[in-house]
Amino acid sequence: MEVEGGNTSANDAVARKIPIQSRRAKVFYQFTQQNLPACKPVLTPSWIVTTFLLMGVIFIPIGLVTLRTSHSVIEIVERYDTECIPEKFRGNKVSYIKDSTILKNCSLYLKVPKHMKAPIYIYYQLDNYYQNHRRYVKSRNDQQLLHGLKSNDTSSCQPEDSSNGLPIVPCGLIAWSLFNDTFKFIRESSELVVNRKNIAWKSDRNHKFGKQVYPFNFQNGTFIGGGSLDPSVPLSDQEDLIVWMRTAALPSFRKMYGRIEEDLDADDVIAVHLMNNYNTYSFGGKKKLVLSTSSWLGGKNDFLGVAYVFVGSSSIIISLVFMLLHVKNPRGEGECL
Amino acid sequence: MKRYIYINDDETSQDLYCANRLSNRKYTLMNFLPKNLWEQFSRFMNQYFLLIACLQLWSLITPVNPASTWGPLIFIFAVSATKEAWDDYNRYLSDKKANEKEVWVVKQGIKKLIQSQDIRVGNIVWLRENDEVPCDLVLIGTSDPQGVCYVETAALDGETDLKTRLIPAACMGMDFELLHKIKGVIECPGPDKDIRRFDGNLRLLPPFIDNDVCPLTIKNTILQSCYLRNTEWACGVAVYTGNETKLGMTRGIPEPKLTAVDAMIDKLTGAIFVFQIVVVIVLGTAGNVWKDTEARKQWYVLYPQEFPWYELLVIPLRFELLCSIMIPISIKVSLDLVKSLYAKFIDWDYEMIDPETDTPSHATNTAISEDLAQVEYILTDKTGTLTENRMIFRRCCIGGIFYGNETGDALKDVGLLNAITSGSPDVIRFLTVMAVCNTVIPAKSKAGAILYKAQSQDEEALVHAAAQLHMVLVNKNASILEIKFNGSVLQYEILETLEFTSDRKRMSVVVKDCHSGNISLLSKGADEAILPYAHAGQQTRTFVEAVEQYSQLGLRTLCLAWREVEEDEYQEWSLMFKEASSTLIDREWRIAEVCQRLEHDLKVLGVTAIEDRLQDGVPETIETLRKAGINFWMLTGDKQNTAIQIALSCNFISPEPKGQLLSIDGKTEDEVCRSLERVLLTMRITTSEPKDVAFVVDGWALEIALKHYRKAFTELAILSRTAICCRVTPSQKAQLVELLKSCDYRTLAIGDGGNDVRMIQKADIGVGISGREGLQAARAADYSIGKFRFLKRLILVHGRYSYNRTAFLSQYSFYKSLLICFIQIFFSFISGLSGTSLFNSVSLMAYNVFYTSIPVLVSTIDKDLSEGTVMQHPQILFYCQAGRLLNPSTFAGWFGRSLFHAIVAFVISIHVYAYEKSEMEEVSMVALSGCIWLQAFVVALETK
């Protein structure tokens, strides 16, 4: 490090000539003369090698710890959209799912590979579903979600802003396409309790969705999208809707369904009774059910650990290469300029 | 176009010419908004941003709130409009003050106090001592019985001496009352901007009949914005008023200079624009295809079955808006801001204050600091720029005898002092010429000491020297001149003054000795203007040698001569002179011709040698800057030998054998051509050798070379690192600047006098030295400094830092915009190419306005190397000259950097956080903070 703070004796002479009363005046003088003290790192080869080495030494352990934590999370992912179509409809899935007269129940059997500690989170995952499409993202009205029918301007909700001449609450494509598959979990003939409260953000429940706002005129149109809502429950308690309304960033996403608050033992077999209502067949989307435990780092995610290890090891390699180059052709001090 | 002005005539010519209403305003209250907007929108960048902002009003396609573009756009417009309005308001106030100033004017024969703006052409205006002249006047009366008055012209040409002005002969002796009723016609040319020329005629009408056309020159006028001094009152006829005065005509807004860096930024902006269009077309097409193949199947998006005609355009336009942030809206504003800070740094610099006069350096043009670092050629004036322009009489040669050769100071030479006391006629006459043949005005200070006010530094030096040699110029009263010599007072009547012009290169006076009545002609001038006119019998060899010897020493020489004139000859010549002085066409040329008829058969008395000392630090400055790869050309009006000597003494050229000086001369085309070719040949051969080759050319040969052999001369200019051009006129100086500019070199012109103004205005950077020749050059220049040696600091410190900082700042601005734009583009790939914006309006605005624009301001006080290092190793400047910090390849580097950083930030924010569980707002915030950290890291890394 080389600290430079006003050089030359000429400056001192000037400084003497101009009496400097206060600190502020001095700082202003330094500023006007472009002489503010500065700290300048000198990038010597040894300095660089040390920095890279240090980076590697810090990053690799962090990466390993993260990777280990991620591996300790147990995840069961089961795709069910293809299985849950009866044999005879396999040729025409879309007409099957659109036929509201057919009861679409279906059963899955999941085997728990390892002991899973409560709470076990239940997610549904949709693939190839563009919740981030521009038409979709924009089609909502936050004012209406909070204030209900009092907010009149619902033009942003088009094309699902009104039906039969009456406004829709909640309006917009997002609410209209609400996910409506339901799941029931049974272990050894006794039903597992699924806690479906508190799956949405607290701030959303309290501040974004109104406590006095009830669904109105919802799914009454000619073309019904997704699930319907109980008109007697205020929006702030419709947690499935709240979760769904938080649009996902990626075309394949998971959303929370609920929590199982019991441990699951290894080799337990869990029967899932589900209602396969939601249409992903028309655009080739996939539906998956996910059961996952969690760690202090959240869910299963190897990327972070791998990235840390990768960056750490590459900086060690770089530092080694630099060190070798430096040992082979050392550079004198004077050549730095 | 000629003007006929009827003096004191209220009916005619009233509305022919404009009233004396000054207006420097660009706008009026009514047209301000449209005119200012029109001006701002004539810039391409602003048109672009306006288009984007208008597109954003269409809610179907806008990805973000239109406020995110309208806000900054309106802010930027408001800032520059406010600045314009403020400037214009100040101009209005100063105009108003000038317009409403009260002056005494004769209207209908009565003297009235009216506002200055009501003065009409033809009105008689009365001025009192220390009044400012409201418009251009032709003098008709003064308080002085001789008809003389004194004016200070500092505001006009920057010269601080007093100038004498005379009333025309026809009005001589008219009394106070008569002047109120005077009638007459003035014939003069239409308004022009030449403040040294006025060729008019005056004819008085009955009852003031004089029957004679009386010539008017600039000597008979007092021009607007001068001040009346040492004269109780004066009155004159308004000839030019309002914006048609000489001063008003010279005013004008010089065209703005564009720096190399600005040009490069414009180019890069263009490139980014093209890139943006390509991205938009590709993504737009892909988006439309995806929409038709995929999105229609997605029932939840609910695409309508029928769509309007513009449907195909919607997605490309959305991408256009998404990508519009690629070109940072704030770049112009922030660059303007930091540039004015650089200029302030120059103003503030304590090390560039002239210790003698306490004048700080000043940057008039705040926009071109970074160009200073890219200068390749410096064209410098000699007198006053390299030298101090403080003339001291050092040596002389009288009648073949050299004085002052031993001591180096003729004033202390015993031989000369003895010759004076012994009354040697040659010496006495020599001193008389020194004291009489000039335009110096002696003024008595209150203490009784005599102060000399002179336009020419040389004349002042001569008069001072004469005074020290006991020949004291005591008083000059109209045409009577008093000289005190050894206690006795000699009186001379000045009959005519044959003025100095740069063509004649000499001046003479015709004087009559009041004692004896003898008329004689006293001349002084350059050797080539005097020696050829010596009378046949005289040997001029010794004088030629003296001139040679003195100029070898770098002294300025003047030859003094005289001859007696017979009364008859004078009378005859006087008529011719009078006639020539009253011609309207080619007056200068005619006068010169008439003067020639008297200035012959001169008896040469001797040669004076005046020293003009080099300024402090000139050789070091030239050497340092030359090491920094800057080429120097010296352009001077002085003669060849003096120029070469000065050049040698200030390291400009190296003496033999290290250096070689080639000369281009010749009087005819052929000679010049041959000599040019010879020099070119030598130059080509010697470019490989480590030898300092320079060429020297005089004004005459230069004229021919520029006219007929421009190509060869251009080649020579490129080959030669050093050149000396002597005896060049102001317009030739400007031509040389043009020549170098046409070869794509960055030029800096530095000078101090009025003759350098044109070259200063033409060059990429004009630097004026606020010196003794007035402030004219300093006013016209982009930078004014007190001493030549500050140039080193100006270029190496201020220029270099400005260049580095601007290069960083501009590329960084593109970097940060591209960074966020690339992330938007990547996101569009995973959002079905529908043009969704990952970031919301508030974060985008905050990113541009707050997070990225404030931290980077640190770079404006960043120094990569200390000032001392730069001064010691001026070679570092090569980097800036070659534009290595801002060019397409460095820009490509920044482009790649932003692409890489965008990929890293995007991949990490998608994967690390929660992958499938990530929600849009979360990802957007993570990516935004990633961008902010990355750019902060870049700023920290790049500032040293």
Automatic annotation (TrEMBL), chain B:
Residue positions of the active site: D381 (4-aspartylphosphate intermediate)
Gene Ontology cellular component terms for the protein in this record: membrane
First-listed, main subcellular location of the protein, grouped into a coarse class: membrane
The P-type ATPase N-terminal domain, residue ranges: 5-70
Domain P-type ATPase A: residue ranges: 100-162
Cofactor list: Mg(2+)
InterPro entries for the chain: ATPase_P-typ_cyto_dom_N (IPR023299), ATPase_P-typ_P_site (IPR018303), ATPase_P-typ_TM_dom_sf (IPR023298), ATPase_P-typ_transduc_dom_A_sf (IPR008250), ATPase_P-type_domA (IPR059000), HAD-like_sf (IPR036412), HAD_sf (IPR023214), P-type_ATPase_IV (IPR006539)
Alphabetical GO biological process terms: phospholipid transport
Limits of the P-type ATPase C-terminal domain: 778-944
Short name of any one Pfam family annotated for the protein: Cation_ATPase
Residue spans crossing the bilayer: 44-61, 268-290, 818-839, 894-915
Binding of Mg(2+), residues: D381, T383, D752, D756
UniProt subcellular location: Endomembrane system; Membrane
EC number: 7.6.2.1
Catalytic reaction annotation: ATP + H2O + phospholipidSide 1 = ADP + phosphate + phospholipidSide 2
Keywords: ATP-binding, Magnesium, Membrane, Metal-binding, Nucleotide-binding, Translocase, Transmembrane, Transmembrane helix
Gene3D superfamilies: Calcium-transporting ATPase, cytoplasmic domain N, Calcium-transporting ATPase, cytoplasmic transduction domain A, HAD superfamily/HAD-like
Molecular function GO terms recorded: ATP binding; ATP hydrolysis activity; ATPase-coupled intramembrane lipid transporter activity; magnesium ion binding
Positions contributing to ATP binding: D381, K382, T383, E459, F500, K524, R556, T636, G637, D638, R727, K733, N755, D756
PANTHER family membership: PHOSPHOLIPID-TRANSPORTING ATPASE, PROBABLE PHOSPHOLIPID-TRANSPORTING ATPASE
UniProt record similarity statement: Belongs to the cation transport ATPase (P-type) (TC 3.A.3) family. Type IV subfamily.
Protein name in the entry: Phospholipid-transporting ATPase
Lineage: Eukaryota, Viridiplantae, Streptophyta, Embryophyta, Tracheophyta
